[in-house]
Predict the 3D structure of the following.
Amino acid sequence: MHFFIFCTSMMIVSTSYVGYAQGKQPPVTEIYKNYDGNKDGMLEANELTGSRYARQFPRWDINGDQKVSPQEIVAFRKRFGIAADGTLLRAQTQKIGAPKFVIPRMSELKRLKKGVPLSREEARNSAFLLGTEKHAVGGTEYVVLTDHVDEAYLESLQKLAAHHKGQIVRVPDLALLHEQEERFNKLQKQLRAIGPKYAAIAPRLDSFRENMLMGMWELFSTLDSDPEIDVFPGFLIASNAKAFSKLIEQSLQHKSITFKKLKPIAISQVLRDTETRSLQKAAMLRQHFRKRDLETPIVAIYGKKATTAPRLKGKQVWNLEA
């Protein structure tokens, strides 16, 4: 399944870390308290089925034995600067040597699926692709998921929902949904009851961020027991109400286009010298689209602590300082 973005060009956001938010995370002890069903001190994949952590299990299970101890999760979190209690670790006082910056081809990456273990190096560098299978969408309904409160935006969304004979599901904040387990689970049950086939996701402009995207992936891939996305999702984003109304009109008059007319762009964020996975993925996407003679502009945004991080070169590459 793929994300389809309802706009005149396709935007691909490369991510530096899938599934974890910046900031406070649940303590490891709380995860085991809630999900260790047989109380043996180990998590198994079936204990996380349908939960927000189901997609994390393969990343935690580095040795591939289908069981995860608290120590493995703690070690995994530490690599991303997250402590066992869920808080951010202090910046290290000694600078760690940056790993060699390599841009692999997608065909060279390991397909991660049950029974295929990852090496520590592969897990650390996110050098893998999730193995997926053909997956039919079982739902039939059209759903609009939004956190908009402005009437001008809601009026446009009501028009969209009426056109598709669908319904609008409103939440307070899509950006924080992945951190609010009770609200997340409630929404998950609501969507299962509706049985959506198509999901139009309309976040406020300040809600549209990497963690929200990953939260939506997590939400729509856990509507049933398999790991695949269970709807055809799309995103509706515009800078103001007038542009949003125009975007809705474009969506209602949507016509399919050939791949030759796609206009991809990759956006990368590099906060520190050693955090180059996002940059790596942007370069990989550029390689991938060149197979179809499509050139992919790259916007790389560097944080103040990324003074010696590698810079991509070439035409249509913009390296910006945050």
Summary: The longest helix spans residues 181-194.
